[in-house]
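User: What would this chain look like folded?
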Amino acid sequence: MSTSVRLAIPSERAALEALQWRASLANPGDREVLLAHPDAIALPPEQISSGAVWVAERDGVILGFAALLDRPDQALELDGLFVEPACQRQRIGKALVERCVAVARERNTPFLEVIANSHAYDFYLSCGFTFAGTAQTRFGPAVFMRKAV
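Assistant: Here's the prediction, encoded as C-alpha cells.
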C-alpha cells in the first residue's frame, strides 16, 4: 500500500481538525493542556485555501497532514504535523516532512523550521532536523529545530 501526499481542500477542514484532536490527545503529555484549551486545535481555512496544507492518504483515506507557514526570515515553518494514532510509525509523517522539504526547495527558502513538542524531538532528528534552541509558546517552552533545504 502506498501513501500519497496532496494538497488539502477546504471541505476537509473539519476532518483534519478531528484528526489533529485524535493525534494530539493520543500523547498523554498534551492531553490535559489541550482539554483545558480546546481553542488550540484549529486549522485556519485560509491556510488550506492558500495551498499551505498537505494531506497524506492511502486508498482515499486521510492518514495525516502537515501545515506550513511563511516566516519573516525567509524560512518556512512546519506549523503542524499530525498522523492518525493507529497509523504512526508507518513513514506517513516522514512522507509529509519530505513533501514540505520539497516545497521549501521550490520556494528557494534556506530552512524548514519547526517548534516541536519534546516527545517529537527524536522523530524530527530522524528527518534531518537539528536542535536550534528553544522557543516560547502559549503553553511554555518548546524545542526549536531547523533543517537546511
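Residues 30 and 50 are 28 Å apart (CA to CA). If you want, I can go into more detail on any region.
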